[in-house]
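Problem: given the chain below (482 residues), write out its structure.
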Amino acid sequence: MRRAYSVETVRAAEAALMQRLPEGALMQRAAAGLAAACGDLLRRNGRVYGARVLLLVGSGDNGGDALYAGARLARRGAGVRALLLAPDRAHPGGLAAFRAAGGQVVDGPDGLGVLDLVVDGITGIGGRGGLREDATELVHTVTRDRTPVISVDLPSGVEADTGEVHGEAVRADATVTFGTYKPGLLIDPAAEHAGALRLVDIGLGPELPEPPDLEALQYADVAALLPVPGAESDKYRRGVVGVVAGSERYPGAAVLAVAGALRGGAGAVRYVGPGADAVIARFPEALVHAGPPSKAGRVQAWVVGPGLGDGRAAEAAVADVLAADVPVLVDADGLRLLDAETVRTRTAPTVLTPHAGEAAALLGTAREEVESGRLTAVRELAARYRATVLLKGSTTLIAEARDTPVRVNPTGTAYLATAGSGDVLSGLTGSLLAAGLAPRDAASVGAYLHGLAARHGSDGAPVSAQDVADGIPAAWRDVRAG
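Solution.
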């Protein structure tokens, strides 16, 4: 599992560790890891000896990491130059080591020629706000030939704790981070700036508290959570999920939500709504009912909202489902029709799955605010509605009302930006709820499988929501195989 901590927590852990280490040892560990990553990239693109490397060096420890790493590269035969953005505040030890190793300090970008690598050591995790104008111009100048960029700990100009980007920021091909991940490396829009991530172990682990601020499940974590039927399983033990979805205008939403539930391993699906004919035509194993949902039969979880439309019947269906004493997932039109106080006072779990626009409506704010501050938005939604919230988007986030780490899904792909894929996710996550997974786990596993399924369904080509649904079994097999 990838675990991320706030700047304040990282600083405290570093301070505790440095008390037990010789002076400068922690920075040397970071610099060694950074130099190794730079060397790997240079070798892949040609060579280390004779490579032309430029360090963009800010003040403080981040610049010191870059200078010490530059010294190591210079001793391996690279031609390393450093451009100091704050010469009077450059790290003195790092600068001395850099010069002693043969590194050259330059006054500006003129005359640098073609570069093989730019190392971004401008601000790091302590930076706030975007890059200053002079730094922005410098970064654009030295990368205009698409020179590869490695950022030190965090791309300069992004917010480490939130993933927000206020103004200009470095767009790195790779980021080498130290000790632990920072939330901004895993959450868009900042994550888009980070490129490939490389974590360098500097011995910080024992100093980091439980729980982390953010976590991202990996294959082994998801495999451990997957509900696998046993010899004594029947459809009820595997989980029966009810789906209230679709309308005369959007019958496909019903089909896709049911597809996600069945592909996700539900023992049975009870469908309630006007799309019964379309559902049965595609999935004859589905159990259909005219409604209301409370009369449809036994279920272990409900999914309500995809393609439901407007009107009194739709509103009544949402209210009926929310009155049930089982976990309920609310998506799409259901999010507009729900009563907030009803959600807050439910005794059974509730999962809300909005995209940015729907989240903005639930919060009474602008969509742009949600998209630029995804972590803040998902935490606020979970707290306000006392629910588990899966905020869909370029990085999908899952938060609970209680004090547990926010989860970020690492398998998202642009192929999911297609009509109906959210309906598939709703059915898939509903099946996991019905199987007995806790709401946070069901949402996390559902998002993970959903992303993998899109990759299987696409094979590098455009993908439809039905392709995503059909890719779920292959995603499931991949996870179990590790």
